[in-house]
Amino acid sequence: MPRSRATAPPIDPIEKDFLDALERLRDNVPQDRTLQANKARGRLKINVSTVAQEAGRSRTLIALENCKYPRVRELILLAKDGHPAEPRTSSDLIDKLRQEIAVLRAELKKAEAETAAHFHAREKADREAARWRDAHARIMRKQPAGESNAATAVSPRN
């Protein structure tokens, strides 16, 4: 029976590798030889290390709390604890969605702050460039037409 996917599609190939590996371990059909041996001995477990080993990727990408793939980490921890990956009740779904909204709002706030900082830096750079253009224009107006105090630039290719 196919499983319904409540999660968003993977963002990149590495995340897809992790999700595929987790699915294989859930179905108890690992491809990694060591994990196949563990399965034969009845010691196959789902955890961060085994998922990374099955995916053929580094464990550090999913092992730490603020790792590169937090969604994969969350799914692994849910599978490890024996909880279903998808919420079973509407209240669980609502709680999960509220958590996601809180995270997204925090990310949005951070992005808006960074955007404002970049905007102000751009305005400051534009004002500075205008000041230098004006200073250059003033100097050029003060010089007689035929004279130039500017040093002649020598091309490094000569």
**Spatial extent as radius of gyration:** 29 Å
Task: Find the count of extended strands (DSSP E, 2+ residues).
Answer: 0
3D shape: elongated
What number of domains? 2
Tell me, rounded to a whole number, the average pLDDT. Answer: 85
The percent range for strand residues is: under 5%
**SS class:** mainly alpha
Approximate helicity band: 55-70%
Low-confidence stretches: none
CA distance, first residue to last residue = 74 Å
Element-by-element helix/strand order: HHHHHH
How would you characterize this protein structure?
This protein is mainly alpha-helical and 158 residues long. It folds into 2 domains: 13-86, no CATH class; 87-141. Helix content is 63%, strand content 0%. The protein contains 6 helices and no strands. Helix 1 packs across helix 3 and helix 1 (13-26) runs parallel beside helix 5 (70-80). The longest helix has 53 residues, at 90-142. The chain starts with 12 loop residues before the first helix and ends in a 16-residue tail after the last helix. The mean pLDDT is 85.
